[in-house]
Amino acid sequence: MTATLIEANNLVKLYTMGEETVRALDGVSFSVPRGDYCAIVGPSGSGKSTMMNILGGLDTPTQGRIVIDDADIGTLSDEQLAGFRNKTIGFIFQSFNLLPRLSALENVELPMIYGGVLPKERRERAADLLDRVGLGERMGHRPTQLSGGQQQRVAIARALAGRPALVLADEPTGALDSNTGKEILALFRQLNSEGVTIVIVTHDHDVAAATKRTIEMRDGHIVSDRLNGSRAA
Amino acid sequence: MMRTADLISSASRALRSNPLRSALTALGVIIGVGSVVAMVALGSGAQAQVERSIASLGSNLLIVVPGAQQSGGVRMAQGGGGRDTLTLDDVEAIAGLEGVLAVAPSQRSAAQIVANGTNWNTRIEGVTPSYLLARDWEVSQGRFFDESEERQARRVVVLGATVARELFANVDPVGQSMRINGGSYEVIGVLASKGQSGFGADQDDIVLAPLTTVKRRISGRFRRADTVSQISVKAATEGELNRLQEDVENLLRDRHRIRAGDEDDFTVQNLSSITETAAQTTQVFTYLLGGISAVSLLVGGIGIMNIMLVSVTERTREIGLRKALGARQSDILHQFGLEAVTLSLAGGMIGLALGVAGAWLMTSLFNLPLVISMQNALMAVGFSGLVGVVFGAYPAWRAAKLDPIEALRRE
User: What is the complex's ipTM, to 2 decimals?
Assistant: First the structure.
């Protein structure tokens, strides 16, 4: 296991929209060590969403090379990418994306089902994780019976279920009021202090300021990459 | 890779989350399988009925009647034929052929009988004791006449069940006397009932009397003494029936001095081939009914495909999420495919139950035997499963091929 979790080298991503070719990423290079907690910020169209899709193994770069947890994303087959998403990545979405039919516990179990984890172990791990995010009392609740903040906690527990090397959060506080958003960010900080590597993709500079490091993107380029220092507290 | 048990629980969960829609979707298959099962059972019942009633005329049986066969078809009417060409000597000769179990001459006559002050018009068959064996009759009360009674032209009769019922409703017919064309006869037995023949005639509306008695006392006035109106020949085994038919035909041609190319003055009817023809006719009928019902199963399949496509569209976001969490294309394909197969298989099994119930209802209504073969039942359910696979495949494939980024963006 290397100390560097993400190593991105000169990434280019082209999209063809009608007759026009859009350069969503135009030579992006950066690296993230294990245990880091960073934010990728930028306005819409900056390329941060494309960056997140590639980091999450949902998409592959047109050019350049990106290695995450020793896996070269550009060389993986569809099948291998599915396995990579299951084992290496934990996704957190702006709109939580919990399945309404399933209880909180079952939602957390979902990635482990695709990982082939046996039911007994699955249930225990999911229960532990819900305890860890402070929802031990509400495991049997459906998403509709939970508040937004609670739903996002369930989603965080789900993201951690596969013991991923990288937790990837897309605007995790975007659908929450500011107090609840702060609670979620505090939970991220706590998880990071326990050793989880987290990358947040956001357009919100206040959210970015809560992390250790801010990577700012614009028009497919990284325009700044700095540590947040004491402001992060 | 998803475990099979998780796949099944996931599919059944998705179906149960929208029970009304699942039930309505399965309804198409329920109706399809139900009608296939019911219609095929009904057709098989009719077929069994036809076979049974023709077999009740007698098994392994050849019937020789005077007159030429008409225009290649099977002539059902017996005993017409104008001339009396069959004689008792012919009967003797046929009895000498190999593979003959029993030969029974008979002379038919119509007569009015009177007993207990009641009149009844029926047919009287003059027969020898071997007739019982040749035509698979059984005596239910009393006894049949023997050889010596037959030789002596005794005035004894054995009644068919219908005649016994009509004339002796409240008394034991055995030992009673009755009058036939003015002469007095003693009833010595009653035949067991055979019911209707395959051609709709009541086989029990008959009186059997010794052949000599009928010839001398009832129809003798109009006929030569040594002719008979029909000869029943029973083969020892079914396999020999066709060979025996040829032997009988050759023998009679020889005896009647019919040259090659000339028309026969007799006809040999083979009941097995009649049964076969009738069974084939009803079988075609069965296939036709089954085929029409199968079309409704097809429509049920299209209904499943339709709903599965709607379901894939509705659950696009869910599919995107599952892919983001690590579902492979094959996982999604199996999940949606299994939902379709579960719908159609469940529909198939419910349809089978309803089809059996419907078949029972209809057969008891039409008074037919209930024939449901295990093979047909399994085929109907298996076919419904196949419908699920075929019509679920495309929606499941569409789901599996969805781009997760697009799918997650969908509202």
Answer: 0.94
